[in-house]
Amino acid sequence: MKIRNLKSTKAGSAGFTLIELMITVAIVGILAAVALPAYQNYTIRGQVSEGFTLAGGVQTAIAENYAQTGVFAPSMTTLGLTDPVGKYVTDVTEANGVVTVTYGGSSNTKIAGGTLTLTPIADAGGNIHWGCTPNAPLTTAFVPSSCTPA
Predict the structure, then answer these.
(1) CA within 20 to 30 Å of 20's CA: 36, 72, 140, 147, which one?
(2) Residues 47-62: pLDDT tens digits?
(3) Which residues contact 65 (CB under 8 A, 6 or more apart)?
(4) What is the DSSP string of 22-76?
(5) Could you read off the pLDDT of 87-98 as tens digits, one per residue?
(6) 49 near 41, Cβ under 8 Å?
(7) Is the dihedral of CA 16, 20, 22, 27 positive or negative?
(8) Neighbouring residues of 84: CB distance < 8 A, sequence distance ≥ 6
């Protein structure tokens, strides 16, 4: 009768090596370094879009007033509007058709205190087109590509 050796003679690994784990951590770190700034820019662009939404009602009122009178209203009071505000927008003002959106409140520090100027441009047919100019610290990186200077 033979006595068998109970120890395994097969050599093998039971887990990951240290180098495999280090490579995995490095890959995750690189992905995070790229993804986090991109996500931050995405959220800032979302905050900037609130300004366009709030200014939209003012722009409509300006265009309607211009169609009826042929001139741009001197103020929002003339249009019968109040100053709209939001979570990221602290002020929307209008003077002679030019709409200025001021960012503050809960907005990201990269855009807080910045303004967006929307300037009406009347064409020969009496249609209104809007020029868009971001002012520091708000930059063109955070506004839609359709935002073109007046």
Answers:
(1) 36
(2) 999 999 999 999 999 9
(3) 72, 73, 78, 79
(4) HHHHHHHHHHHHHHHHHHHHHHHHHHHHHHHHHHHHHHHHHHHHHHHHSS--SSH
(5) 999 999 999 999
(6) no
(7) negative
(8) 54, 57, 58, 92
